[in-house]
Write a structure and sequence with these properties.
Elements (H helix, E strand, L loop, with lengths): L1 H32 L19 E3 L5 E3 L7 E7 L4 H17 L4 E7 L3 H11 L5 E3 L2 H9 L9 E5 L5 E6 L4 H12 L9
Parallel strand pairs: 3-4, 4-5
Antiparallel strand pairs: 1-2, 3-6, 6-7
């Protein structure tokens, strides 16, 4: 009986040690896959934007580095999110109006690819859109979206620094207020 108790005790200790080792190895592996980021208590504003690569809805791998030197609005959204869908026409108009000055909208859908493709085709969205579900949620956290709120937007200056983040719907006027100074355009604050 005493031998059985010792054997059970040794097996429990070995199991706990094995589980702990497994968790440590998984955490180390995951830390190697994610970019260096401030901890959750640190505000992402003022930090260099995290690098990421995701496939767009045509299956082409896209990397945020493609738009280096531009003023970027990274917008996290979903087809099932009414405020997300409400702000997209404004983003399309802004893309048309300010693309030549160096402005780029990037849409990252936290949604399934088929739903996103259908919505993009219906709306005629004129900027790059990626659909990545869980991977998109992770990227949104890298960009400061700790609550997984939608819509969520991050504005990046030409030097690659995040200069503003926002949870919730944005209007065309609000985006213009943020991007015009970054594009070197005069801003009429009296009309805001």
């Amino acid at each position: 009986m005493k031998k059985n108790a010792i054997l059970i005790f040794v097996m429990i200790i070995a199991g706990v040690a094995g589980f702990g080792l497994q968790r440590t190895l998984i955490n180390q592996k995951n830390q190697n896959l994610t970019p260096e980021l401030p901890d959750a208590q640190t505000n992402i504003v003022g930090q260099q934007r995290p690098d990421f690569g995701l496939k767009d809805i045509e299956g082409q791998m896209r990397n945020i580095n493609e738009w280096d030197g531009k003023v970027i609005l990274v917008n996290f959204w979903a087809t099932w999110c009414p405020p997300c869908k409400k702000e997209i026409p404004a983003f399309m108009a802004l893309q048309d109006e300010y693309a030549e000055q160096g402005f780029q909208v990037i849409g990252i859908a936290i949604d399934d690819e088929e739903s996103v493709k259908d919505y993009v085709d219906t709306m005629g969205i004129n900027y790059p859109v990626m659909a990545a579900e869980l991977a998109a949620m992770e990227v949104s956290r890298w960009y400061g979206n700790r609550l997984n709120a939608l819509p969520y937007s991050a504005f990046i200056n030409r030097d690659g620094k995040i200069i503003y983040t926002r949870s919730g719907e944005l209007t065309k006027a609000q985006v213009e207020h943020i991007i015009k100074p970054l594009l070197g355009l005069a801003t009429d604050y009296a009309s805001q």
